[in-house]
């Protein structure tokens, strides 16, 4: 989880990843940021993210992202 | 049927009235009937193309689901089979679109490069083929990815493809948001009907009063730019006003008509000229095309295996930051190349697409640097002056792209931009005649464009602040409400430009 | 009750719009000589009816024509009258008193352009009395046009607000009710009996401002279809249909000879296939008619009054011998 927060901070700093649940809805993460994050997740966690996974439900908060990573790893 | 014809207004009135008079369970069939009547009115022979897309998409989607439901442990094999079926559907439909829309462009260029003398009969494009093809292919990909279930009823599916308000110029809808509305039962509601009619009226105002009047000047200047060297800047500004008024006006009419049937379409415009970057602009302009490109080309391409491999290679060569951004930039450029080509079979559209793609790609690559520089220059990103700067800068960049969009060729676009840098003589505007009235009424025409722009600007600022205009007006006393509506109704004949020989909405040609 | 109140409010709003628009129509929509032309075919029986463009309007004098043929004719040509309009005028004429012959003045420029939705667009339609023909005309032409043509017929005249007072005076006075052509007489021209516009010989520059040349690539399918419908209608009604093209100035012909020759070839062929007699007076010798610019008010082909009378005489004699 810390690793994930590090990645998020590096790609799109100045957002409250601990608390925010509207990262997509509020436009904090745009499509470039999303894809950069996905690239890092694939590199760091060895998961394969498909286009069908790129939905607000998976990206609106750090928790949701972590849940997606775990599902893809499992 | 032209959107601005009496015929079409009558058609919508009959469709809407009948919709609420018949038993609710038949409402979607009524819509299907009227959608096909509308489509047939453009030429019965074009129905074959609509039916082709409807049938091929319907069958391939069901086939995909059938394969998906096969009990097999070999998930990879199933996935591959589904993908191949999807590719068949995509090739059939995009192939048809490419053939009809781009064959002549291809042949012209082959002839130039290979000094050949090929020719191909001139096809008239089936109505709305770009829009309904994209909408259908989005559905097919959604089924492939499991985002939605395949529609089993062929007639219901036919309605999704042919729904008449959107077929001419979008918005490009998504199955999971649109379909259930189309098939549901709807009750009549006065307030909703009133709001819908107000939206339609507003759309016609933007089109007839703002866009068509600005269009007189735009057509004249872009049609012969060398005769008006001092007007390049004004021409492109008027074009930005015309294009927005025409397209968003058309969208308001479409959404208003859909609202009459209690169907909410996806937003296509969100005050685009208030955008703070080109990226932001494409989140506000022709939104459904942008999101379609994002979901069906940009993400799949960026996440594809070849792109991942390239990403790994780029990381090794250029470091982590550039390495992870470069594949995304390339995918983005490809997307905007497609956006450019979508607009038409001409080099200027390719330049238009690349121009947008390169700016966004470049700003993606430079994102970290931009953040560093802003910090070191102590720029407050939330300050009004910074936001104003961003809006102005974006507006300038967008207007440069409009040169390529509107000029007759790349060469002419460059010629006009050169003029824009050297000459500026607004007085030349007064030499342009307005319709049958000669130049005597040109100052009035200019005045109308300024007035309508001011009204639109005011409305946009209020909307940007979150105010719902129609609710705000509805809350006012009757006399004021009626004054506004009467103004809008009579502005159409009094201030609106009569249709030219080429008439119609700009985006209805795609 | 709430729904009923809402309905009343909406209906009231629409009524106000309708009333305002009707008042504006009365004030802005001018007295047009199409009203006199229509009145002629509503009330009189004619043997010959001329349909066509402004070339025919200025070039054919029914009284001169009648003096040769000893029949009765009227000129329903008009600037902006496309084949579609001619078709419905023919239908309306037949609805009142069937003519023996329709003479259609063909201007090739009208076959390669679409009608523009300006002031001329609904000139005749506006003057049609209510009938099934008017309904059909509405459905096939006006309904397909911009909705402002239907809901706000005055809108193409909106810039002539300085003429509003004159319009009101004419419409409330005896001139309008008596179909008096007096308002259409000025220094440049006069409206003569049976729809002939007599162009006075005045000192004004002769331009080719509205000249539209024939170009087969621009042939309008709708026009071709409506002409076939006109031919079929005349056959069904046993009305003789004759097509003519009035002569243009020699100078214009020599300048654009290829285009005019192409038009001649095309229409000769086309009319032959349809079994319709066609006389192109650009190609036919007219002894006694001066085809130079001296006879015309412009380079496009609008004849001066005296030349038109001369041409009409020769036209009538030619048609008599052709028969």
Topology:
The complex is a heterotrimer of chains A (74), B (510) and C (323).
Chain A: H1 2-11, H2 31-45, H3 56-59, H4 62-73
Chain B: H1 6-21, H2 27-40, H3 47-68, H4 75-114, H5 129-144, H6 154-162, H7 164-167, H8 175-183, H9 190-223, H10 232-260, H11 278-281, H12 287-302, H13 305-318, H14 320-343, H15 347-365, H16 367-376, H17 384-406, H18 410-422, H19 442-464, H20 469-474, H21 478-495
Helix pairs in contact in B: 1-2, 2-6, 3-4, 3-5, 3-6, 4-5, 6-8, 9-10, 9-19, 9-21, 10-17, 12-14, 13-14, 14-15, 15-16, 15-17, 17-18
Chain C: H1 2-28, H2 34-43, E1 48-52, H3 54-59, H4 62-69, E2 73-75, H5 83-96, E3 101-105, H6 123-127, H7 132-140, H8 147-151, H9 164-172, H10 174-177, E4 189-192, E5 196-199, H11 221-236, E6 240-245, H12 250-255, H13 257-274, E7 277-280, H14 305-322
Parallel strand pairs in C: 1-2, 1-3, 3-6, 6-7
Antiparallel strand pairs in C: 4-5
Helix pairs in contact in C: 4-14, 5-11
Question: What's the short version?
Answer:
Chain A has 74 residues and is an all-alpha fold. Chain A has helices spanning 2-11, 31-45, 56-59, 62-73. Chain A has one domain: ACP-like (Non-ribosomal Peptide Synthetase Peptidyl Carrier Protein, Chain A), CATH 1.10.1200.10.
- Side by side, the strands of the main sheet of chain C go 2-1-3-6-7
Number of domains of chain C: 1
Fraction of residues in H or I helices of chain C: 40-55%
The N- to C-terminal Cα distance of chain C equals 74 Å
Biggest beta sheet attributes of chain B: none
Whole-number radius of gyration of chain B?
Answer: 24 Å
Task: Output the number of helix runs of chain B.
Answer: 21
| CATH evolutionary superfamily of chain C | SGNH hydrolase
Please give the radius of gyration of chain C in angstroms: 21 Å
CATH fold description of chain C = Rossmann fold
Low-confidence stretches of chain C: none
The largest contact between protein chains, plus residue counts on each side, is:
B-C, 30 and 31 residues
- Provide the β-strand percentage band of chain B: under 5%
Into which percent range does the helicity of residues of chain B fall?
A: over 70%
The top level CATH class name of chain C: Alpha Beta
User: Beta-strand percentage of chain C?
Assistant: 5-15%
> What's the total number of strands of chain B?
0
Commentary on this structure:
The complex is a heterotrimer of chains A (74), B (510) and C (323). By secondary structure, chain A is an all-alpha fold. Chain A has helices spanning 2-11, 31-45, 56-59, 62-73. Chain A has a single domain (2-73), classed as ACP-like (Non-ribosomal Peptide Synthetase Peptidyl Carrier Protein, Chain A), CATH 1.10.1200. Helices cover 55% and strands 0% of the residues of chain A. Chain B is mainly alpha-helical and 510 residues long. Chain B has a domain at 6-188. In chain B, helix 3 packs across helix 6, helix 9 (190-223) packs parallel to helix 21 and helix 12 packs across helix 14 (320-343). The longest helix of chain B is centred in the first third of the chain and has 40 residues, at 75-114. Chain C has one domain: Rossmann fold (3-Layer(aba) Sandwich), CATH 3.40.50.1110. Chain C has helices at 2-28, 34-43, 54-59, 62-69, 83-96, 123-127, 132-140, 147-151, 164-172, 174-177, 221-236, 250-255, 257-274, 305-322, and strands at 48-52, 73-75, 101-105, 189-192, 196-199, 240-245, 277-280. Chain B binds chain C through residues 2, 4-10, 190, 194, 208, 435-437, 441, 478, 482, 485-486, 489-490, 492-494, 496, 498-501, 503, and chain C through 3, 6-7, 9-10, 13, 16-17, 20, 113-114, 116-119, 142-152, 154-156, 158-159.
């Amino acid at each position: 989880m810390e690793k994930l927060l590090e990645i998020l901070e590096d790609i799109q700093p100045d957002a409250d990843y601990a608390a925010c649940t509207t990262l997509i809805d509020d436009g904090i993460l745009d499509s470039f940021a999303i894809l950069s994050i996905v690239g890092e997740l694939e590199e760091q966690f060895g998961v394969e993210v498909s286009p069908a996974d790129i939905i607000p439900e998976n990206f609106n908060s750090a928790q949701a992202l972590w849940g997606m990573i775990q599902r893809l790893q499992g | 049927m032209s959107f601005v014809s009496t015929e079409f207004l009558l058609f919508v009135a009959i469709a809407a009235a009948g919709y609420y008079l018949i038993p609710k369970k038949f409402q979607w069939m009524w819509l299907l009937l009227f959608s096909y009547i509308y489509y047939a009115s453009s030429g019965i022979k074009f129905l074959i193309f609509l039916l082709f897309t409807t049938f091929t998409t319907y069958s391939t989607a069901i086939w995909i689901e059938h394969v998906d439901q096969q009990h097999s442990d070999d998930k990879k094999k199933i996935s591959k089979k589904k993908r191949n079926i999807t590719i068949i559907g995509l090739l059939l439909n995009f192939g048809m679109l490419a053939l009809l829309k781009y064959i002549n462009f291809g042949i012209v260029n082959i002839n130039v490069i290979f000094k050949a003398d090929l020719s191909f009969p001139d096809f008239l494009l089936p109505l709305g083929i770009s829009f309904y093809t994209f909408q259908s292919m989005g559905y097919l990909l959604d089924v492939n990815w499991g985002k939605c279930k395949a529609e089993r009823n062929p007639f219901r599916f036919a309605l999704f493809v042919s729904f008449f308000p959107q077929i001419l110029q979008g918005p490009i809808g998504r199955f999971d948001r649109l379909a259930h509305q189309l098939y549901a039962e709807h009750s009549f509601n006065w307030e909703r009907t009133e709001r819908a009619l107000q939206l339609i009226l507003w759309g016609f105002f933007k089109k007839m009063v703002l866009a068509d009047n600005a269009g007189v000047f735009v057509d004249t200047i872009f049609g012969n730019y060398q005769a008006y060297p001092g007007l390049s800047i004004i021409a492109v500004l008027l074009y930005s006003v015309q294009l927005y008024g025409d397209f968003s006006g058309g969208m308001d009419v479409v959404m208003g008509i859909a609202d009459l049937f209690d169907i909410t379409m996806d937003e296509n415009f969100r005050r685009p000229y208030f955008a703070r970057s080109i990226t932001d602009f494409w989140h506000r302009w022709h939104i459904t095309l942008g999101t379609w490109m994002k979901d069906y080309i940009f993400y799949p391409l960026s996440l594809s295996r070849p792109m991942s491999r390239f990403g790994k290679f780029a990381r090794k060569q250029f470091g982590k930051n550039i390495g992870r951004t470069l594949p995304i930039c390339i995918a983005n450029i490809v997307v905007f190349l497609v956006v450019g080509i979508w607009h038409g079979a001409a080099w200027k559209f390719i330049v238009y697409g690349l121009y947008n793609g390169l700016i966004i790609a470049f700003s993606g690559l430079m994102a970290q640097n931009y953040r560093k520089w802003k910090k070191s220059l102590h720029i407050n990103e939330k300050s009004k002056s910074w936001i104003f700067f961003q809006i102005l800068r974006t507006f300038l960049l967008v207007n440069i792209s409009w040169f390529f969009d509107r000029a007759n060729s790349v060469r002419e676009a460059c010629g006009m931009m050169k003029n824009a840098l050297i000459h500026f003589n607004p007085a030349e505007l007064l030499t342009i005649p307005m319709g049958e009235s000669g130049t005597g009424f040109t100052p009035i025409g200019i005045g109308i464009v300024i007035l309508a722009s001011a009204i639109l600007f005011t409305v946009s600022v209020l909307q940007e602040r979150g105010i719902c205009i129609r609710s705000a007006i509805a809350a006012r006393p009757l006399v004021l409400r009626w004054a506004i509506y009467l103004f809008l109704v009579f502005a159409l004949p009094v201030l609106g430009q009569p249709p030219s020989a080429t008439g119609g909405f700009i985006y209805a040609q795609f | 009750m709430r729904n009923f109140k809402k309905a009343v409010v909406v209906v009231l709003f629409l009524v106000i719009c309708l009333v305002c628009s009707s008042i504006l129509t009365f004030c802005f929509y001018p007295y047009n000589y199409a009203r006199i032309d229509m009145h002629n075919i509503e009330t009189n029986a004619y043997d010959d009816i001329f349909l066509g463009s402004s070339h025919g309007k200025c070039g054919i004098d029914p009284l001169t024509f009648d003096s040769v043929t000893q029949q009765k004719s009227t000129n329903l040509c008009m600037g902006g009258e496309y084949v579609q309009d001619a078709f419905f005028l023919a239908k309306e004429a037949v609805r009142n008193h069937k003519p023996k012959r329709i003479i259609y003045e063909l201007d090739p420029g009208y076959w390669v352009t679409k009608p523009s939705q300006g002031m001329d667009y609904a000139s005749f339609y506006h003057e049609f009395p209510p009938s099934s023909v008017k309904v059909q005309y509405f459905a096939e032409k006006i309904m397909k046009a911009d909705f402002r043509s239907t809901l706000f017929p005055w809108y193409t005249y909106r810039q002539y607000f300085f003429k509003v007072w004159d319009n009101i005076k004419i419409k409330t006075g005896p001139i309008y009710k008596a179909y008096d052509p007096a308002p259409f007489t000025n220094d440049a021209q006069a409206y003569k009996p049976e729809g002939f516009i007599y162009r006075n010989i005045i000192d004004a520059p002769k331009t080719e401002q509205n000249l539209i040349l024939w170009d087969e690539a621009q042939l309008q399918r709708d026009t071709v279809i409506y002409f076939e419908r006109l031919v079929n209608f005349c056959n069904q009604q046993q009305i003789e249909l004759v097509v003519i093209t009035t002569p243009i100035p020699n100078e214009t012909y020599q300048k654009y000879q290829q285009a005019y020759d192409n038009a001649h070839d095309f229409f000769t062929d086309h009319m032959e296939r349809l079994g319709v007699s066609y006389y192109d007076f650009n190609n036919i010798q007219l002894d006694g008619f001066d085809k130079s610019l001296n006879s015309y008010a412009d380079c496009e082909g609008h004849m001066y009054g005296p030349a038109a009378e001369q041409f009409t005489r020769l036209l009538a004699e030619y048609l008599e011998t052709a028969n």
